[in-house]
From TrEMBL:
Residues 14-301 form the Tryptophan synthase beta chain-like PALP domain. The keyword Ion transport does not apply. InterPro entries: TrpB-like_PALP, TrpB-like_PALP_sf. This is Threonine/serine dehydratase. The keyword ATP-binding does not apply. It comes from the Bacteria. Its cofactor is pyridoxal 5'-phosphate. It holds the Pfam family PALP. Keywords: Pyridoxal phosphate.
Length: 314
């Protein structure tokens, strides 16, 4: 994937996305001893960066493919993103969701026009249900993170950040399935000036950290993390990009995620979800590494259950 593909992608999806704001905080900068620039994808349509990749992936389909619709399996933000992107582009979206998904998420997908099929909460069941829809409806499967067009779309958030702040030293993103960090790394590589990409993930799901250590895609034995959007693993399309262009991955504890999320709510006055607080938690943790640097942080989303805020628990 080259520089021109990123430029073309951004131009293509502009009518269907928001160019989200970049927020700063003097208090946080003083506390950290560096300059932080928060790219707020929590203000993106449907509340997360995934709208970008979903829109681009659908727009790259042939007219015949669009006629038959798209399908994915997701219980989170990509389910909503693909549904809204498809609705905006006049395409049917079939969404396979685990029957353990919160009703609020199922309702959100339906609200965006997604046609929901529920299945058992296992990867095997999700893949089988998706394959059935592909065969019966002729729908095209779009992976939430391991897809070139999705990766390019996710990279446009960092492109917009670098357009406003071209002299950043680092850009930090959360790492789940790898689409955001891979797209960001490409944008940093092509548009940054001596800028480096850093990923952040919870210790509880540190498969990306271990994958970079071992040289092949690792899995997680457990997924016991508050950062529910980061429970997926890397894929064969994004892993090589991460290997080549991501400087390091910083791991954080559950307590560090909650503390970072609380600070963002208190000081930036924004609603962000635990997964998106992971990137800020990494910078907080390795404060000395970032002294006097300019750091972009991708706030990946703001779809949080307001009835279960982690910092309200005793």
């Amino acid at each position: 994937m080259d520089k021109q593909q990123l430029i073309d992608c951004h131009h293509r999806i502009k009518p269907f996305i928001h160019n989200t704001p970049v927020l700063t905080s003097r208090l946080i900068d003083t506390m950290m001893g560096c300059s932080l620039y928060f790219k707020c994808e929590n203000f993106q349509r449907m509340g997360a960066f995934k709208m970008r990749g979903a829109a681009n992936a659908i727009m790259q389909l042939s007219e015949a493919q669009k006629q038959n619709g798209v399908v994915t399996h997701s219980s989170g933000n990509f389910a909503q993103a693909l549904s809204l992107a498809a609705q905006s582009l006049g395409v049917k979206a079939y969404i396979v969701m685990p029957n353990s998904s919160p009703q609020v998420k199922i309702n959100a997908v339906k609200g965006y026009g997604g046609i929901v099929m529920e299945c058992e909460p296992t990867l095997e069941a999700r893949e089988q249900a998706s394959k059935q829809i592909e065969e019966e409806k002729g729908a095209t499967f779009i992976h939430p993170s391991n897809d070139d067009d999705v990766i390019l779309g996710q990279g446009t958030a960092c492109m917009e950040l670098l357009e406003v702040y071209p002299d950043l030293d680092y850009v930090v993103t959360p790492v789940g399935g790898g689409g955001l960090v891979a797209g960001t790394a490409l944008a940093v590589h092509y548009f940054g000036k001596s800028c480096k990409t850093i990923g952040a993930e919870p210790f509880e799901v540190d498969d990306a950290y271990r994958s970079l250590q071992s040289g092949h895609i690792e899995t997680n034995a457990s997924i016991n993390t508050i950062a529910d959007g980061l429970k997926t693993q890397l894929g064969d399309r994004n892993f090589p990009i991460i290997q080549q262009h991501v400087e390091q991955i910083i791991r954080v504890t559950e307590e560090e995620i909650v503390a970072a999320m609380r600070l963002l709510w208190e000081r930036l006055k924004i609603v962000c979800e635990p997964s998106s607080a992971v990137a800020f938690a990494a910078v907080l943790k390795e404060k000395n590494q970032f002294t006097d640097k300019k750091i972009g942080i991708i706030i990946s989303g703001g779809n949080v259950d307001l009835n279960h805020l982690p910092f309200n628990k005793n």
